Amino acid sequence: MSSPTAAVSKKPARLKADLALLTTSLIWGSAFVAQRLAALQVGVFLFNGLRFLLAALVLFPFAWWARRSKPTAAYSRKEYLVGTAAAGLLLFGGSALQQAGLVFTTASNAGFITGLYVVFIPIFMAVLWRQRQPPAIWGAAGMAALGLYLLSTGGAIRFNPGDLLVLASAVFWAFHVILIGFLVQRLDVLHLAVGQYLVCGLLNMLCGLLFEPWTAMPVAGAWWAVIYTGVVSVGLGYTLQVIGQRQAPPADAAILLSMEAVFAALFGWWLLGEQLNPVQLLGCGIMLAGMLLSQYPVFFNKSASSFSPEGRT
């Protein structure tokens, strides 16, 4: 049993970790505003290509330093290439669908709907990997579906195409987090991050060359969004998340990282003037409750897999 002194000494570390995770949520939530504004000016693939390549560039010196300080890797080059290619492909699909959805929907909607990936993860683990999940997971899925309906339709029988694209991106984010949970047990975290961002960025740039008109003016007008989402959202947000999750209990991480959706709505209201009617607000509340309920095994230490988010915006 730990002594009272040891318990007290852990409190500052836990508080710092919680603050790091809360800051991560704030950064990721605010990034939806930058992505929304960029979506109206720059092509989906060009914007994603620039920001993920920038993120890879920012993290590369840290990965290189880690390699120098610990030069012997326990994994093969083939394992690294296959793992980063798979993660980069999922990241490419999720980021492209999310950014395309932001052309037609609001930052508030996108933030809440993206957060549904924490509900999808245990469902996919149960259906595809036959991993038993507690009944609360299925209740969370029902709440998420009801909340999504209210948020996207406002109670009327219609769906916003942008919301549906973001919902599809949440499926990619869920599989991405599942894969990352597997890969981080085998690969260096920073090397994996740089590799997957590089793959994602190059794929986006290639698709941009093939499918989007290239002009300098839109990019010049959205340069700040590229820098913010590349350096701050991906680079800094990813780093703070790793720092926070080293010390914070899983229950803290589940709650604090779920706040990303709330921050997305607040920044959308503050900076873009986005409004949600009472029915949509009710939908947001139900979705947030479903996200937290999906982390029931984490809160009560039940025997079920729980994956925490890995930097995605």
Keywords:
13 helices; single chain; mainly alpha; 313 residues
In short:
This protein has about 325 residues and is mainly alpha-helical. Helix content is about 80%, strand content about 0%.
List the helices and strands and how they pair.
Blueprint lengths: L3 H36 L4 H26 L7 H25 L5 H8 L2 H12 L6 H19 L7 H23 L5 H23 L4 H6 L1 H25 L2 H23 L5 H16 L2 H4 L14
N-to-C span: 41 Å
Radius of gyration: 19 Å
Report the β-strand fraction as a percent range.
Answer: under 5%
Number of helices: 13
Shape: globular
Notes on the protein architecture:
The chain has 313 residues and is mainly alpha-helical. It has one domain. It has 13 helices and no strands. The protein has helices at residues 4-39, 44-69, 77-101, 107-114, 117-128, 135-153, 161-183, 189-211, 216-221, 223-247, 250-272, 278-293, 296-299. α1 (4-39) packs across α4 (107-114), α1 packs antiparallel against α10 and α6 (135-153) runs antiparallel to α12. The longest helix is centred in the N-terminal third of the chain and has 36 residues, at 4-39. The termini are far apart.
